[in-house]
Amino acid sequence: MSLKELEQLEVRFSGSGGQGLVLASIIFADVLVAAGYNVIQGESHGIEARGGASRGEIIASKEEITDLAVSEPDIFIAISQKSCDKYYQDIKENALVIIDSFLVTEIPKFKSNNIYLLPFTNKVKEEFDSILPTNIAFLGAMAELSNLVDHQLFIEAIKKRIPTSVIEMNLKAFALGVKMAQAAAKDKE
Amino acid sequence: MKDKVLMQGNQAVAEGALAAGVKFCAGYPITPSTEVIEILAKKLPSHGGRFIQMEDELASIGAIIGASAAGKKSITATSGPGFSLMQENLGYAAMVEVPIVIYNAQRVGPSTGGATKPHQADIMQTKWGSHGDSPRIALMPGSVKEAYEITIKAFNFSEKYMVPVVILMDELLAHMRESVIIPKKEELEVINRRTDVAPQAEYLPYRMDETGIPVLPPLGGGYRYNISGMIHGENGIPDLSPETIDACVRRINSKLDKYYDDIVIVENEKNESAKIALFVFGSTTRPAKGAIKKAKKAGIEVELIRPITIWPFPEKEVREVAERMDKIIVAEMNLGQTAGLVRQAIEGKAEVVQLNRVDSGHISVDDLYHKILEISS
Questions:
Q1: Could B5 and A46 be called an inter-chain contact, meaning their C-beta atoms sit closer than 8 Å?
Q2: pLDDT (tens digit, 9 = 90+) per residue, B187-223?
Q3: Which domains does chain A have, with CATH numbers?
Q4: What CATH fold (topology level) applies to the domain B1-263?
Q5: What is the ipTM metric for this complex?
Q6: pLDDT for residue B361 is more than 50
Q7: Does the CB of B114 have a partner CB in chain A at under 8 Å?
Q8: Interface of chain A toward chain B, CB-CB under 8 angstroms
Q9: Residues of chain B contacting A41 with CB distance shorter than 8 Å
Q10: What's the CA gap between B6 and B150, in Å, rounded?
C-alpha cells in the first residue's frame, strides 16, 4: 500500500542529540501541514544536550488525531547506532526504513524489507566539508522514497526553518539526498 | 480560509499572551517552559513591552506584580521547581488583588524531578501552595490551539476579576507541535481592567461597588493609594481588628462566587446512553476522545467530562454528570489529586475509578480503553 493511502501516517526520526533530527522532524511536519494534513509533532530526549538517543515523531492524518505518540512507525529513520537499536522494534511490517549506513554499522533484524542503507554522513562530509546538513540530506532521501508530497513543499519548508546564511548548502544537501535515494531505488529494481 | 501553521504549545502561550495585550514578562528559564520567555524576550519590544530575565523565580513574580500594579498586563512562565518558589507572592497577588498570569508547564516531580518529562501533579499546589485562604483561577488547555485561546482567556479573567490566573499545562503539551488555525484579531475578545474610579478625594482602593471587584488605577498615573499584603480595610491601610480580618478574608475568597458560570469552562458532550464517564484534562484530552470512539465501536457508550477550568473546581458540572452515571473514570498523571475533588463534588452519586500514571509516559488511548473495558464487564 502506498503511504498516501494510509488513514494515519506515523513517522519516527531517531538519532543522537545534536544531529538535527528534531529539526528534520519539524520541517517534515511543516511539509505535511502545507500538504493539508492535520499534524502533531513531538520530541523525546534524555537530559543531555548532546549525545544520548533522542527522537522526533510525527502523526499526520486527514482526520482528527487522537493519539499523542507514534506506536507503529510507517517511516523510520535512524542516524545513530544507539537510537536505531533503541527505537527500531515497533515499526510496521512494510515500513519505509532509511538508515545512515556510515554511522549505523550493525543493522538490526527489521520487520520490514523496505530498507535503504545510505552513507549520508560520509557523503555530506565529502561534498560540503561539514556534517551539519546531514539531517537535510535525509529529508531529501525521504522526500524521494516516501513519494508522499511534492519536493517543492520540502524546499519551501527548509527555507523557512534554516538560517539564511546556510540555506544554499542545505538545499544542495537536500538535492544530494534525493540523488542518493534515486540511485538506491534504481539498484533495488 | 486561513492558513494552518505548525505551532508549539509554548509558542501558543507566548503568542496568545501577545494577542491579549501583554506588555511585561519577567522570568527565569526552566525546562519545559523556556520557549515562552525566549519568544516574549524577542517579541515584546516590538509590541510596546519589555522582558527582564530576573535572578530567580521569586524575583520574577515580584516584578510582574509590580508591573501589573502600574497597569501593564504581565506574565511569567515557569515549571514545578520555579512555581514552588513563586508561592509566597502568588498569595500576595491574590491578597492585594493585582492581576497577573502565571504559566506553569508541569514536569515530573517532586523536587527537581525530571525536566523533560510530563506530570500533572501541581493541581493542588496551584490552589493551596500559598499560606492562608486566597482565591485563584486555574485553566488547563487540552491542545495547542486551546493553549492560545486559553492564554487570552487567562488575561481576560485576571483583568476582569483582579485575581491571579494560572495556566497549567504539562510538558507534553508544552513541547508538542500541532497544526493550528490562529483566529484573526477581530475575532478575539480582549478585556482590560476597569479604570473608572471616583475622584482622588473620595477614592478608596478596596471599597466595593456592586461588582465586588476592586478598581485599582495604574500606579504612577496620579492616584495615590496603599497596596499591602497585610490585612487591610477599604482604604488599603493595615488593620488587624477582628471585624476587618473577617471581612477581608471572606470578601476576597467569595468574590468569584457570583461569576462561577463565566469562569468555569467544561467540555461535556451529553450522552444519554452512557453509564460510564471519563474525567480527563490537559494532554489526555486527545487520547480520551480516541478511547471513547474505540469503546463506541465495541458497543460501550462513554461520556466525556473535561474541565478546562480546574480552579474554581467545576463541582456543579461534575455532579450533574455523576447523577446520570454509574461510574466515573478519573485519569490523571499524578496519584489522584482531582479524584479526591471529584469524590467530594459528587457525594457518592457514582463510583470513582482512578487511573493514575506517574512513570512520565502519557495516558494513551489503550490505557483508557482497557480501563473502560475492565469496569464495564
A1: no
A2: 999 999 999 999 999 999 999 999 999 999 999 999 9
A3: 3-188 (3.40.920.10)
A4: Rossmann fold (3.40.50)
A5: 0.92
A6: yes
A7: yes
A8: 26, 29-30, 32-33, 37-47, 64-69
A9: 6, 176-178
A10: 18
